[in-house]
């Protein structure tokens, strides 16, 4: 059993993914992700890890953003808040030092990209 299994965020993630999460949610999440990645590898030609990340993002209808410094974080906030994506206004508080990533659902999208998610991560 992973020490992360007892974290509420892990249980929420398992639930959001439609997993049972009983007892070992971390193992279930990892298995779920492995199945998804295998599917992406099978469906897309990935010559390297950058290609795999791009293909996985496309398949999941998501965009990954890395934050290396405060300027990166400010740029993301300044890009999306004026577009009416107010959830990004609190990003600095949501992505605290102990957090490595957060996934935000954009609400104000054109219909053809309605399901796009923004994943913001500290590498």
Rg over C-alpha atoms, rounded to the nearest angstrom: 16 Å
The largest sheet is: 3 strands, mixed
Q: Mean of residue pLDDT?
A: 82
**Number of β-strand runs:** 3
**Multimer state:** single chain
Unreliable sequence segments: 112-117
| Shape field | globular
Number of helices: 5
Order the strands across the largest sheet as they lie in space: 1-3-2
Structurally, the number of domains stands at 2
Structural class: alpha+beta
How do the SSEs run, as a string of H and E? HHHEHHEE
What is the straight-line distance between the termini? 25 Å
Describe the structure.
This protein has two domains: 1-48; 61-123, no CATH class. The protein is built from five helices and three strands. The chain has helices spanning 8-16, 25-43, 49-59, 70-80, 91-94; strands at 62-66, 101-105, 117-121. The protein has a three-stranded mixed beta sheet with strand order 1-3-2. Helix 1 (8-16) packs across helix 2 and helix 2 packs across helix 3. The longest helix is centred in the N-terminal third of the chain and has 19 residues, at 25-43. It is globular, with a radius of gyration of 16 Å.
State the main characteristics.
123 residues, alpha+beta, three-stranded mixed beta sheet, 5 helices
Write a compact overview of the structure shown.
The protein folds into 2 domains: 1-48; 61-123, no CATH class. It has helices at 8-16, 25-43, 49-59, 70-80, 91-94, and strands at residues 62-66, 101-105, 117-121. The chain has 123 residues and is α+β, with helices and mostly antiparallel strands.
């Amino acid at each position: 059993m992973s020490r992360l299994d007892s974290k509420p965020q892990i249980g929420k993630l398992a639930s959001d993914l439609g997993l049972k999460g009983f007892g070992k949610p971390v193992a279930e999440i990892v298995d779920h992700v492995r199945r998804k990645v295998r599917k992406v590898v099978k469906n897309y030609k990935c010559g390297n890890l950058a290609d795999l990340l791009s293909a996985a993002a496309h398949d999941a209808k998501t965009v990954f953003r890395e934050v290396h410094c405060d300027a990166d974080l400010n740029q993301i906030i300044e890009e999306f808040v004026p577009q009416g994506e107010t959830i990004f206004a609190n990003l600095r508080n949501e992505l605290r030092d102990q957090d490595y990533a957060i996934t935000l659902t954009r609400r104000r999208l054109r219909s053809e990209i309605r399901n796009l998610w923004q994943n913001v991560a500290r590498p």
